[in-house]
Design a protein that fits this description.
Layout: E1 5-6, E2 19-23, H1 28-39, E3 44-49, E4 69-73, E5 76-79, H2 81-91, H3 102-114, H4 116-127, H5 134-154, H6 166-178, H7 197-207, H8 210-213, H9 219-230
Parallel strand pairs: 1-3, 2-3
Antiparallel strand pairs: 2-4, 4-5
Helix pairs in contact: 1-2, 1-6, 3-6, 4-5
Protein name: Glutathione S-transferase 6
GO biological process, one term: glutathione metabolic process
Domain GST C-terminal: 101-234
Length: 254
C-alpha cells in the first residue's frame, strides 16, 4: 500500500471490485473506518487524499470533500465516520462490533458523544495553541476521568467487553494522538499513569489489538505531522517510501 496522498490533478486509480476507502493517513476520523475494516477482516483498497489540495474526483464520493468516504460499489459512496463504521458493522454481520442490547448501544454512543469535549480540547492544543485556555485543559481531563470511570464501571478489558468493539474503535484514534501533546510542549495534557492507571493499561492493550497495530502511528510521528501542519506545509507524504530509490553507495576512489 502506498502512503502517497493524491491531490489536485492526480488521476483516480481504477476500480478493482473491492470496497474502497478514501482517507487521510493522519486523520482520526478516517482511522475509525480503517480500524473497523481491519476488525471485520474485510478486503479493501485505501486511497489517501491531500486535504489541502483535494483531487477533483473526491467530491463525487464526499460532497464536502471530507474523509472518510466509503465507495461500497463503483461510483457509489457514503461518508462521515459514524455512518461508515455503523454501515460496515451492519452490512457485514460476522464478528459484530456493536452491542446486541439496544440500551448498551445507546450508552456506547453517549460515551462517544461525551468524549467530544476532550477531542475538541486536543485540537485546540495541537493546532490552535494560541487559543488555549485553562478551561480546555479542564475539559480534556474531565473527558479522561469520565472515560476511566466507564472502564471501571464496566469491569472489562475494553469498553465493548473482552474484545474491542465499535465504541473502542471510535474513540481510540484520539487516544492515540493524545500521547503526542506532551511532545508538542503541552505537558499539562500528559496522561499521568498514577492518576489514570486503568486508562493507561487500556491504551497499552489497544496498541496490541491486531486491527489497531496494523495502522498505529507513534506519538513521535503524530507530533512530527502536527508540527509540519502548524508551519503551513502539512507533510502528508512523510510516510511514503514509494518514490525512494535504493542505490548502492559509490566506492570511494583510492
Amino acid at each position: 500500500m502506498s502512503e502517497k496522498h493524491l491531490q489536485t490533478g492526480d488521476v483516480l486509480p481504477p476500480y478493482n471490485g473491492k470496497i474502497r476507502l478514501y482517507a487521510m493517513r493522519f486523520c482520526p476520523y478516517a482511522e475509525r473506518a480503517v480500524l473497523v475494516l481491519n476488525a471485520k477482516k474485510l478486503e479493501y483498497d485505501l486511497i489517501f487524499i491531500n486535504l489541502d489540495h483535494k483531487p477533483e474526483w473526491i467530491f463525487n464520493f464526499s460532497p464536502r470533500g471530507t474523509v472518510p468516504a466509503l465507495e461500497y460499489e463503483q461510483g457509489k459512496a457514503i461518508f462521515d465516520s459514524n455512518i461508515v463504521t455503523t454501515y460496515l458493522d451492519e452490512k457485514y454481520p460476522e464478528n459484530p462490533l456493536q452491542a446486541s442490547d439496544p440500551l448498551r448501544r445507546a450508552q456506547d454512543k453517549i460515551i462517544v458523544e461525551n468524549f467530544a469535549a476532550a477531542q475538541s480540547a486536543y485540537y485546540t492544543a495541537a493546532f490552535n495553541p494560541q487559543a488555549l485556555e485553562p478551561s480546555s485543559v479542564e475539559k480534556f481531563h474531565k473527558g479522561l476521568e469520565a472515560f476511566q470511570a466507564e472502564l471501571e464501571g464496566r469491569g472489562t478489558k475494553f469498553l465493548h467487553g473482552d474484545e474491542p468493539g465499535w465504541v473502542d474503535y471510535t474513540i481510540w484514534p484520539f487516544l492515540e494522538r493524545f500521547e503526542a501533546l506532551p511532545l508538542l510542549g503541552k505537558s499539562e495534557f500528559a496522561i499521568d499513569k498514577t492518576k489514570y492507571e486503568l486508562l493507561a493499561n487500556y491504551i497499552e492493550a489497544m496498541k496490541n489489538v491486531p486491527a489497531v497495530k496494523a495502522y498505529y502511528l507513534s506519538a513521535e510521528t503524530h507530533a512530527k505531522f502536527t508540527e509540519s501542519r502548524n508551519k503551513g506545509d502539512a507533510n502528508y507524504n512523510m510516510l511514503d517510501t514509494s518514490a525512494v530509490c535504493c542505490m548502492r553507495p559509490r566506492k570511494k576512489k583510492e
